[in-house]
Amino acid sequence: MRLAVRLLWRSPAFTMTALLAIALATGANTAVFSLVYSVVFRPLPFPEPSRLVSITQFHPAFHESVVAGPTYFDWREGSAELAQLAAYSMGEYTLTNGAVAGRVAAGLVTHEFFDVLGVHPKLGRNFSAAEDRPGADNVVIVSEAFSKERTIELDGRAYTVIGVMPQSFAFPPGVQMWIPLALNPGDRSQGGPIQLVRVIGRLKGRTSVETLAASLQTISERAAQAWSAGARMVILPLRVWLTGKTQQVWFILFGAVLVVLLIACANVAGLLIARGAGRRREMAIRLALGASAGRLRQQLLTESLLLGLAGSALGFALAAGLIHLLLPLIPDSMLMGRPVQLDAPVFFFTALVAAVTSLLFGVAPAGEAGRVNVSDSLKQGGHGTMQMGRSVQMRSALVIAEIALSMALVVTAGLLARSFVALTEVDPGFRPDRLLTFSVNLPSASYRDGRRQHQFYDRAIEAAGSLPGVHSVGLVSALPFSAASASRALVSAEGEAPWGAADSARHRVESVYVSADYFRAMGIPFVAGRTFAADEMSEKSLAVVVNESMARRFFGESSRPLRRVKTGLAESPSPWLTVVGVVRDFRRTGLDVDVSPTIFRPYQESNGLRSAGFVVRCAAELESVSEIARRTFARLDREVALSDVQSMQHRLAGSMASQRLRSISAALLAFLAVAIVLTGLYGLVSYIVSQRTAEFGVRMALGARPSGIFGMVLRQGLTLALIGTAAGVALSLAASQLLRGLLFSVVPTDPLTLAGAALGMLAITAAACAGPARRATRIDPMRCLRQE
After folding, report:
1. Which three-class secondary structure state does DSSP give residue 180?
2. Is 579 helix (H, G, I), strand (E, B) or coil?
3. Measured at the alpha carbon of residue 607, what is the angle toward residues 603 and 609, in degrees to the nearest 5?
4. Cβ(439)–Cβ(643) under 8 Å?
5. Burial of 9 by CB count in 10 Å (0-12 exposed, 13-18 middle, 19+ buried)?
6. pLDDT tens readout for residues 680-709
7. Which of 305, 337, 369, 692 is deepest in the core (most CB within 10 A)?
8. DSSP 8-class letter at 355
9. Who's near 303: CB < 8 A, 6+ residues apart?
10. In what helix (H) or strand (E) does residue 405 lie, and over which residues does it extend?
């Protein structure tokens, strides 16, 4: 061990180069693994988390996975496979604290919720069954941030604090307090709206997910409730359900850093092989003095292990900085509120990486040490032609593998970058500049009926429109690019043939409530017709505005208003509504999401709109307008707080956060991989030039021109680059298929990306070879001949 340390200390250039490659690759792997482990693999902080499952029903008619309240009651009463079952949902409330109102996220949970998860309040108690009923639900359990409160006022209603959860508990992610869900069991037999919930359960003993799914499906079919008709049962481990679609992104990112690690191992192996070629005379002398081949292999493996451990230790320290840089780039939706830290599992992963990498880059050089020809090495000073040729062949194979792997990363980065650029170039259909947006939530105690809600919104629109630096103000039931979603409605067009349930998908549209000035404030142009007139902004309005997609679907063209539609079937008693305007299609949920047919109605028609969004077109700075708006709304009602205050440009940027993260991460990893490859290729070509110095001197003495020597060396390096690039293109075509679901407006086999990556790789490898090639042209022939 001490000999290995001394030998590495005597070769500082080699040691630092190898340590740098290992540290960068290990640091990237450790940082990404800590993220992947925290989000995907870390067990949930609950007792026996493997028995926790998420239970839902996928409704094709709504394209959503939800559970109706009555279905939850049927499952709770009829399932024998579950130890416990609980329902929950999430909501935002106005928290009134003295003269200041703020917004907080709360979980609405049944009284079994905490028992299912196996957690209990740090102080106080859990909800009782009696408190989980309509009218008796004025109790709350809070996080430690509110532990000093005895009562809390939410939406104008007082709640008594009965418990405090420990700081480590954060489920559902983002909530700060929990109140009873208070589902009404009578909803199963009564008409009217059905409350939608999420359901979690704890499996009994060794009950399988398949057995539970079959049991719950049977219960639902036996109940024969309309809201479960056609729904498909979906049961997933709770950890998997929480991770959702982000798993694919994390696994692809982790795979990319593993590729970088392989490239680094190949690079260090090449360095060790080159170093071993220079130490052949040393190895020959040791063998001649009685050392066994096994002893030499052990010595070289020890040196490799030292390099691996030291490089991984540096990488572990580097990972802390990388995590600090990466976390601000990662959307909250991808982290799911999980803590990211360099804890014991991450440390053991780094130790495993150190051991595996030491073997990967140490085995080949150690194997070469046992094949040293003692007599040949001693006679020729360790530079025998056969040994040199075998060393060059092995390093050449490693460089080709490095280029092929890095090509796959470069192509991946190119595809994701082109996809992101294409996304940024999408026209949202409105003008996002100088557009302030925010949401308001009216307290239920003060605004129980639609009339009071509409009166407040009327006053708020008028007050906001009179603020200095404001051009126009619009109200909308669901802000674009926010967590709020539009409601859905079935629509019939006048004159179309009768239709039934089988055609419901074609007649399903999004329904949004707006003010008359919403389109002007957003900068959405009308392609035909107009916005709502003043006398049409009423509870009994028969005027609607539609977007181009809806006009094309129902009327076959988008430029003719004054058609009529109604909600429901054509024979339903609903009144006919006149289309007074057609607006240009605009994006509401994502730049990569197709525009849905949408009908816009005056907000006065809504029967209960306690939450609404505002869009404010400003001439002044948005920050100053937002502060004035806060004070203005506080004067209207101190219990009404502005929340989710953002510029529309910030919302657009946020909608692309995950795509931006993928693009930046892939680009950084590709850059790192190419940098490692270039050092390997540069080192190999330099080694070849050093071994062929005498040959080049003789050639130049016999009349060879420097340009010929330059071309000879360059061709040797470019030959390796061409083989590696060709293999890399084939590898990229296979690997890029994994990206199909992550790309926007770009195909995985995009020829422009493949060609650009290949040409770029050849160009930079040619640049890496040019330095050693130029040195070869400056060899002094007479000096070489005298040395020979």
Report:
1. strand
2. strand
3. 60
4. yes
5. exposed
6. 888 778 877 777 777 788 888 888 888 888
7. 369
8. H
9. 4, 7, 8, 272, 362
10. helix 385-424
